[in-house]
Amino acid sequence: MFKHHSTDSLALIWHSNWGNFAAKVFVRVLGRLFYLPIVQICILLSMAFSPEVRADNWLCGVGINMRSLESRAPQNNDLVWRKVSELGVAAIDDLNAPEFKETKLRLSDLAFVPEYENAALSWMRSASRAGVEIAIASEHADYLGRHRAYVQSLSGGESGAPKMTSWSEQLLSQGLAMLLPQGRTDLTKLIAAENHAISQRSGIWSDRSPGRAYFVAADQGNADLSRVHDAIGRFVLVEGILRAVEHQEWRTYLNFGSDWRRDFTIALEDDVRRRLAKDQSPDDAFSGWIGQKVRVRGIVENRGGPYIAVDNPDRLCLMTD
Predict the structure, then answer these.
(1) Would you state the torsion angle of the CA atoms of residues 197, 199, 202, 207, taken in this order, to the nearest 10 degrees?
(2) What are the transmembrane regions (predicted)?
(3) For residue range 77-86, what is the model confidence (pLDDT) as tens digits?
(4) Positive/negative CA dihedral, 201, 194, 239, 265
(5) CA distances from residue 39 to 199, 200, 203, 289, 307 in whole angstroms, order as listed
């Protein structure tokens, strides 16, 4: 997804709009020579014995202001799983199976970063060797002819009994991918898987240094994280305490400091604001968010202060009690 041919590649976004953030050549070479063999040895063990992740109290998108748990997010009951005889993994964003003829597939709701593309690709190729099932997540293909899909494969469970393992959950829980919500699906398990990797500082979440971290703080309240001010032009996950909400006619601003000209701001366009508010007024919908911990993912722009414009409600999450 992060390669130049991917519609959901962070490299594509960065290269086109924000400059070249590709991994250095020597890092890729060293990764191929030393890191991948270790990954290949450990993949099956990680699938069999990876710890169960639990859903923390993060609510995302329209689920934030929904009252009943059952209605917070669409369920995955409408997915139709199909067993495939083999799954080809040409690239991290290029999957194919004989049962789907010439249709190219890519994993839905995931994005890959340059530093961990090789590790993710190695994991996917090893996981593709046993009992693979695929569910198509998008009716229409992207301009490269690829359909979004979910993949699961057979692996050993904690008790030794085989079970179907979600590729998305495994890649997220090991820090080999970032969550990038795209379709109408229940994100609960994916959020929990990613949060597990963040808490363990696994994979892409291990580097917290300025200008390199993918998980940054909205303000100075978290000494363990570098600040969002050091992430201008990059796609990152930002966390902070919401300080104030400002409503304008066509937009709502979520402010994380006293001075919007210097501090981090999230902008919600009217269509996103309406989807988040549901049947409530903006004042009623967002006033309860003040003082709460918020996470948002997106490209950080420089508009006086760091700024993320949210174009998908599911990329905004709120920590609840």
Answers:
(1) 130
(2) none
(3) 578 899 999 9
(4) positive
(5) 21, 18, 12, 41, 36
Query: Amino acid identity of 19?
Result: G
End-to-end CA distance of the chain: 35
> In one letter, which amino acid is 70?
E
Domains of the chain in sequence order: 10-58+76-205 (2.40.50.90), 215-319 (2.40.50.140)
- Its pTM stands at 0.80
Q: Read off the DSSP letter of residue 290.
A: T
Per-position b or e across 248-280, b if 16+ CB within 10 A of its CB: eeeebebbbbeebeebbbbbbeeebbeebbeee
Rounded to an integer, what distance in angstroms lies between the CA atom of residue 124 and that of residue 89? Answer: 7
Residue 25 CB partners (closer than 8 Å, separation 6+): none
The tokens of 247 are what? Answer: 């409503």
pLDDT level of residue 278 (50, 70, 90 thresholds): confident
Greater model confidence, 171 or 162: 171
Beta bridge partners of 296: 238, 316
